[in-house]
Design goal:
- The protein is built from four helices and five strands.
- By secondary structure, it is an alpha+beta fold.
- It has a single domain, classed as Heat Shock Protein 90.
- A five-stranded antiparallel sheet has the order 1-2-3-5-4.
- It starts with a strand and ends with a helix.
């Protein structure tokens, strides 16, 4: 669990570092890094998260292999994460569209019994390149 920082803005960087420690130079690292950065940043910005829990595990769905990455935050926001239409001049607001594109729409959000927000995504095990070759 990544928690207890005076500067919550460090959480995305710490999550990326943890991801690198877990999978090194795996072919899916760049895509997973972008997904993790976006989900952790959303937890910090929109849910005022002071901690996040990051999980990553391989998973098989319908005969295909994926990475399942999940970010759990305290669930302080009543808003359900969803992509929004950002104006051209908006400096943010495109992150979930990136996640949606990278995962081909295979992401969602749910609440735990404790009220924590979980946002998860499935990425082909070898990244986007695996999907393109099939």
């Amino acid at each position: 669990m990544l928690r207890g920082l005076d500067d919550r803005a460090l959480l995305p960087r710490l999550a990326r570092r943890e991801l690198r420690r877990w999978i090194g130079d795996h072919p899916a690292f760049d895509d997973l890094e972008l997904i993790v950065s976006e989900l952790v940043t959303n937890a910090v910005v929109h849910a005022a998260a002071t901690w996040v829990r990051l999980t990553l595990r391989p998973e098989e769905v319908g005969g295909r292999r994926y990475w399942r990455v999940a970010v759990v935050d305290p669930g302080r926001s009543a808003l359900v994460p969803q992509p929004r239409i950002a104006a051209l001049s908006d400096p943010s607001g495109r992150g979930l569209w990136l996640v949606d594109d990278l995962t081909h729409g295979c992401w969602d959000t749910e609440l735990t019994q404790l009220g924590e927000r979980v946002v998860w995504a499935l990425l082909p095990l070898n990244g986007r390149s695996e999907e393109r070759t099939k």
